């Protein structure tokens, strides 16, 4: 029989998970966007080298939205509420927009005016089925890539990206390079979170709905409690369409927020629905959300209903909202894509609401999954120290940008399949940190005590995958990342496959 000291392989050293606990705090108010950040424009005017094009005009720099609007609080529509249409894309038929808009991309059909009052923002591109466009805003802000040319002697009309302007806004401004007037993508992401919060807040407030044979849709909210003079209701998409909308159980001073549950639905239509005397006097917000799957609605909303007395709001930040039919709409539309097949008649806006408490949102830190560590194969009497390779996922959830403290400790030392212990192997958590601009390394021994990992969830939903983030930090040589190291391997003399057990916990967990 061979002597054990001469046998070449120790085998696989692996680490398994024994348990994961999380902190359980009491529910707290959720803040989707507590503060709108203010950044000053880089200069008063933007300058360009245009020696080859002496007709191009250098426009005043756009600055930032907060130069034009007062400080906004943590409300539902927030910044988007300053624009009648807020979308990623606008696809316009030959119908005018009397209000204002903020969008990345615009598709034009016909020459009707896109915008009539206030400030509008066109960030990225414009397409048209002819060579003309009309903007009648008080102020139009263009993205930095747009090319504005002054009127020519032969035509007398200025142009934007080659489109002749039938009417020019009173004021034109333009983004400086890398300095956008506002971030449309970020605001739409915030609004997706807001839509979810509203749906969570109202999903148990199921209104009684009567809709006989597609007639009058009667929503009875008498049994729904009022919160700060707002009633949050949920109705199913299948309750629509009808020829008239009626709401009962709402006082003169109460506002209404209706979440339309679009679970299992990809197309929603109001039909040619009118508002009765009560509903037409109310400022109603219509929020589109999939209750069953807890996801934002990405389907189509065909809005044909007619209400010109009050200002309403349509909140569908990931959906396609089409204004069609012969009806009129006043207020605000938030959509991933807005399709304008009808006139947007006025520049009135929906009176904004305070963001409600998210009843279902628990931002207490949770350890979702803990990783394994594989130290690979090791020859007896060779290296005395090894760095492990992370396996699987290490996922947490909590409040975005708030520190989560994770303790890791050795629950059971390396043990082979035949019962041999490696009691003299030591364990260290290695932190590598580039935060200061150069690499610094520190060790935490957790052979007999616990080591500490600090992490800040950065995604909008408050989740984070530590291993993928550490890999990114290591590759980019920025911030910090962690490794595990075992030492004193020369104390192991018995061959075999050794497995140890780690315990991952959150600080202050029960």
Mean pLDDT: 83
What is the number of beta strands?
34
**Total domain modules:** 3
Beta-strand proportion: 35-45%
Helix coverage percent: under 10%
Radius of gyration: 30 Å
Task: Describe the sheet with the most strands.
Answer: 13 strands, mixed
Structural class: mainly beta
Measured distance between first and last alpha carbons: 52 Å
Helices, by number, come to 2
Principal-axis shape: globular
* Contiguous runs where pLDDT drops below 50 for at least 5 residues: 1-12, 16-54
Organism: Leuconostoc mesenteroides subsp. mesenteroides (strain ATCC 8293 / DSM 20343 / BCRC 11652 / CCM 1803 / JCM 6124 / NCDO 523 / NBRC 100496 / NCIMB 8023 / NCTC 12954 / NRRL B-1118 / 37Y)
Protein name: Cell surface protein
Description:
This is Cell surface protein. It comes from Leuconostoc mesenteroides subsp. mesenteroides (strain ATCC 8293 / DSM 20343 / BCRC 11652 / CCM 1803 / JCM 6124 / NCDO 523 / NBRC 100496 / NCIMB 8023 / NCTC 12954 / NRRL B-1118 / 37Y). The chain has 510 residues and is mainly beta. It folds into three domains: 4-25 and 362-506, no CATH class; 65-174, no CATH class; 186-340, no CATH class. The chain contains two helices and 34 strands. Strands 2, 3, 4, 6, 10, 13, 15, 16, 18, 19, 20, 21 and 22 form a 13-stranded mixed beta sheet that branches. It is globular and about 90 Å long. The model is unreliable at 1-12 and 16-54 (pLDDT under 50).
């Amino acid at each position: 029989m061979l002597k054990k000291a001469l046998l070449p392989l120790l085998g696989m050293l692996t680490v398994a998970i024994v348990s994961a606990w999380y902190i359980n705090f009491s529910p707290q108010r959720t803040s989707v966007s507590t503060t709108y950040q203010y950044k000053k424009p880089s200069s008063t005017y933007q300058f360009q080298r245009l020696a080859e094009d002496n007709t191009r005009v250098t426009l005043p720099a756009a600055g930032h939205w907060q130069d034009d609007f007062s400080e906004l609080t943590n409300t539902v529509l927030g910044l988007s509420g300053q624009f009648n249409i807020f979308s990623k894309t606008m696809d316009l038929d030959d119908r005018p927009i009397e209000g204002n808009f903020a969008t990345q991309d615009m598709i034009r059909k016909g020459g009707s005016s896109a915008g009539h009052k206030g400030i509008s923002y066109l960030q990225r591109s414009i397409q048209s089925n002819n060579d003309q466009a009309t903007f009648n805003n008080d102020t139009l802000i263009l993205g930095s890539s747009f090319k504005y040319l002054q009127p020519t002697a032969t035509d007398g009309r200025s142009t934007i990206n080659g489109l002749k302007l039938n009417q020019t806004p009173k004021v034109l401004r333009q983004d400086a390079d890398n300095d956008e007037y506002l971030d449309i993508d970020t605001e739409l992401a915030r609004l997706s979170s807001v839509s979810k919060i509203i749906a969570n807040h109202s999903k148990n407030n199921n209104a009684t709905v009567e809709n006989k044979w597609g007639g009058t849709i009667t929503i009875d909210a008498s049994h729904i409690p009022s919160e700060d003079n707002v009633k949050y209701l949920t109705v199913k998409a299948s309750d629509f369409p009808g020829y008239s909308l009626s709401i009962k159980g709402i006082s003169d001073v109460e506002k209404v927020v209706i979440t339309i549950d679009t679970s299992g639905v990809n197309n929603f239509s109001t039909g040619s629905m009118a508002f009765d005397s009560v509903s037409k006097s109310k400022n109603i917000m219509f929020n589109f959300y999939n209750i069953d799957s807890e996801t934002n609605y990405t389907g189509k909303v065909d809005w044909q209903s007619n209400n010109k007395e009050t200002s309403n709001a349509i909140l569908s930040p990931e959906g396609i909202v089409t204004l069609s039919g012969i009806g009129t709409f006043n207020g605000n539309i938030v959509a991933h894509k807005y399709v304008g097949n009808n006139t947007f008649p006025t520049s009135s806006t929906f009176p904004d609401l305070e963001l409600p408490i998210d009843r279902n949102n628990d931002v207490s830190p949770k350890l979702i999954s803990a990783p394994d560590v594989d130290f690979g194969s090791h020859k007896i009497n060779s290296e005395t120290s090894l760095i492990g390779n992370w396996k699987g996922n290490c996922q947490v959830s909590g409040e975005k940008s708030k520190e989560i403290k994770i303790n890791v400790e050795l629950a059971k030392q390396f043990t082979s399949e035949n019962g041999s212990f490696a009691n003299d192997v030591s364990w260290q958590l290695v932190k590598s940190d580039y935060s200061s601009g150069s690499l610094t390394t520190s060790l935490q021994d957790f052979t007999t005590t616990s080591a500490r990992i600090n992490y800040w969830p950065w995604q909008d939903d408050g989740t984070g995958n530590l291993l993928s983030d550490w890999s990114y930090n290591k590759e980019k040589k920025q911030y910090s990342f962690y490794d595990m190291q075992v030492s004193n391997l020369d104390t192991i003399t018995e061959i075999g496959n050794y497995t140890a057990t780690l315990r991952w916990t959150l600080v202050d967990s029960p």
